[in-house]
# Entry
Amino acid sequence: MAIVETRNIKKYFGEVRAVDGVDLVSEEGEFLVLLGPSGCGKTTLLRIIAGLEQPTEGEVLIGGQVVNGLPPRARQIAMVFQSYALYPHMSVYDNIAFPLKAQGVAKESRREKVHWAAALLKIDQLLDRKPRQLSGGERQRVALSRALVREPALFLLDEPLSNLDAQLRATARDELQQFQASIGTTTLYVTHDQVEAMGMGHRIAVMDRGKVRQLATPREIYDEPADTFVATFLGSPPMNLLVRDDYLVGFRPEHLLPQGQTKGDGATASFSFQVGRVEYLGADRLLYGVFDGAFEDTKIVSRLPSTVTDPIQPGESYQFTVRQKDLKFFDRGPGLRMEPRDFSP
Ligand SMILES: Nc1ncnc2c1ncn2[C@@H]1O[C@H](COP(=O)(O)OP(=O)(O)O)[C@@H](O)[C@H]1O
Ligand SMILES: [Mg+2]
# Structure
């Protein structure tokens, strides 16, 4: 186990600032997720930590040691990519044993390790098969076993579930998280999928254009976003944002409720919500519309749980409220979070 740290990592490809000054410190045994849209620099950062790419600037530390000068194999890391790249002509057993063989580990101790890793990932009954005889989920577990036998100090996983279908992803997510908790190896997990990030991460680093916008627990990221990028990247549908003078005010769709449905005491902000479209999703309804008056150019979404049974008709206006404490304020320049203030529509 080890802590991984990056200090002001930059990677420029000509004009492209793929990674633009990233400072990160993991905790021991942490499952740390790098979340961000495609092209924001996640893979590049992971490859730099792995030693597959040299940074333009900055330092990588693993277990407190600067590893910039070390080749990948000396860094005690194991990396699993989106495409697992199993050797098609080799059995599962030989695929898992491959890195040990390359290291010159003796046959008997190779055998022990392969069985240990295969048992942990529950694929011991598949060791004689070839990759083409496996499901996507099983292949993914073979790739993880192959990474595991080297007993790395650090796991680097780059969108390892993205080739699986939706249902399998949910189980694979669960298995992967349990597996990581049981071995306790510090893990950096890259994804563009907020559901994966929220569900799996101890903490999430939200990245945008080569920079980390916020590093915090899933709950903090969702409830207390550091800026408008984080506020709108997380959440589906994203946070509503209204422009007022020199600032923005945001609130989550589930916090915009029919008057009388807002729970708890304290002040509320009240809006006349003109509903344009209603999407019935089973567990809840999404209402799309606009506020009458000053903000009518801004599209607004409300999420009503099915326990809220108020009849809502498209084309009608209703009084909706948001608790003052659920309003988040951002400046209009870089969109950074500001102190709360009194707001009335
Ligand atoms: N070898 C490379 N040469 C030039 N540009 C690259 C190279 N690798 C990545 N990039 C660019 O760097 C940016 C970040 O890429 P990447 O790290 O793959 O993002 P992500 O994994 O978040 O989708 C992208 O704009 C990408 O096109
Ligand atoms: Mg990538």
In short: The longest helix spans residues 166-183. The helical segments are 42-50, 92-102, 107-120, 136-148, 166-183, 194-200, 218-223, 228-233. The longest strand covers residues 268-280. The radius of gyration is 24 Å.
